[in-house]
Design brief:
By secondary structure, this protein is α/β, with parallel strands linked by helices. The chain has helices spanning 18-28, 57-63, 76-87, 100-103, 108-114, 139-145, 148-153, 167-190, 200-207, 209-218, 252-259, 274-279, 281-292, 297-306, 317-321, 324-328, 370-376, 381-389; strands spanning 9-12, 32-37, 66-71, 91-94, 119-124, 195-199, 232-236, 242-246, 311-313, 332-337, 341-346, 393-394. 40% of the residues lie in helices and 15% in strands.
């Protein structure tokens, strides 16, 4: 079957995490992703998390399925090569500070002059407008500025926390890919290309929309506690493992109480309905904590699922990697890597029945595709040799 984005060519100038994960997702759906790297040491991501055997999970996960082309964009000849590639591309994507690509003569208008149907995607830290647009930003900066880090710490007056470095980048990448796909859809209908702007800040605000809207409406933030409520949160069991339950409406309360073998609490006026449970939450949490501590996690998971309560063991990555549910849905798959042998990798999180995507090949070597891609753009071998000799390109 044809992949959904087969025939789409993306010229990828992105670096670090937000941009590269966006182009990985598009590549998994069949787009040809041409990653432009500088000619000396390549993308910064090649050196992140690199272990003694040379493997970098950061690099591999964010650059699989791509073709590496090394061009020195500081040279006139290099910039001309980039624009030449743009003539046969559908999408250009970058995540430099606003004005950087324009300063090189590689902004939206420059590519559009060569290819009116081009879609130009720009991912920034702060957005393209406002007094902070030109400032540097990274994932944790967006988490801090958007209020996310403070909320994760527990709200105003608490120590801020960054629960998972990369959450702004990864969600920002999903937003970036969504914007590109929307623009491609519009172009299919109208034939018109356009510019797509997304940012880490904008995505982090969208991620927090319910909590942020509450603060905007009431002028104060909702309190954030260890558990969302006595019936929604994590509880430690007799074996030291934690079980997460979510009982967000009234129908779950009797199920939870029966599963935990405390049916006498169901009609207790302190806990019978939602408001009393909230008013008496400390007392109820103490009773549920006591119940969970009486037996091991496996016992409680069986009982909770028998009573149709949403529940899960709080798990580590080793448990995730060997899980049948994850494997059967293709969320983790095995892939052959020429350098490292068989590898388990994260699979596709969006799956289509008729035009499925496919996990891209392992990340490319530096400049692995420079010559073949430039040949496809009409650059002959003699000119390629001259450019290589001058240091404008690197590869084979």
């Amino acid at each position: 079957m044809t992949s959904p984005l087969a025939g789409i060519r993306i010229l990828d100038f992105t670096r670090y995490q937000q941009g590269p994960f966006a182009t990985v997702m598009l590549g998994d759906m069949g787009a040809e992703v041409i990653k432009i790297e500088e000619t000396t040491i390549g993308d910064y991501g090649r050196r992140v998390w690199r272990e003694r055997d040379g493997f970098s999970a950061f690099w591999e996960s964010l650059n699989r399925g791509k073709k590496s082309v090394c061009i020195d964009l500081r040279t006139d000849a290099g910039r001309e090569l980039a624009l030449k590639l743009g003539e046969t591309s559908d999408v250009v994507m970058e995540n430099f500070r606003p004005g950087t690509m324009e300063g090189w003569g590689l902004g939206y208008e420059d590519f559009r002059a060569r290819n009116p149907r081009i879609i130009y995607g720009q991912a920034t830290g702060w957005g393209t407008k406002g007094p902070m647009a030109g400032l540097p930003s990274f994932d944790q900066i967006a988490q801090a500025f958007s209020g996310y880090a403070q909320q994760c710490g527990g709200g105003i007056g608490t120590r801020p926390e960054v629960p998972f470095p990369g959450v702004a980048d990864q969600t920002g990448a999903m937003n970036f890919a969504f914007g590109i796909l929307t623009a491609l859809f519009v172009r299919e209908r109208t034939g018109v290309g356009q510019k797509v702007d997304v940012s880490l800040l904008g995505t982090q605000l969208a991620l927090q929309a319910p909590a942020l809207l509450h603060a905007l409406h009431f002028g104060q933030e909702r309190a954030r506690e260890f558990r969302a409520s006595p019936t929604t949160g994590q509880y430690e069991c007799a074996d030291g493992r934690w079980v997460m339950i979510v009982g967000i409406d009234q129908k779950f309360w009797p199920r939870i109480a029966n599963a935990l073998q405390v049916p006498h609490l169901i009609e207790d006026p302190r806990f019978a309905t939602g408001h009393p449970r909230y008013v008496n939450k400390d007392e109820l949490e103490s009773l549920l904590e006591q119940a969970f501590r009486a037996c091991p996690s496996a016992y409680w998971l069986d009982r909770l699922r028998e009573h149709d309560v949403p529940a899960s063991l709080v798990r580590n990555y080793a448990e995730v990697a060997g899980d049948e549910q994850i494997a059967m849905n293709g969320y983790i798959v095995e892939q052959e890597n020429a350098r490292f042998g068989p590898q388990k990798v994260v699979g596709l999180h969006v799956q289509l029945s008729e035009t499925p995507g496919e996990v891209g090949a392992p990340a490319p070597g530096l400049g692995e595709h420079t010559f073949s891609i430039l040949r496809s753009a009409g650059i002959d071998d003699r000119r390629l040799a001259e450019l290589a000799e001058a240091g404008v390109i690197r590869g084979s």
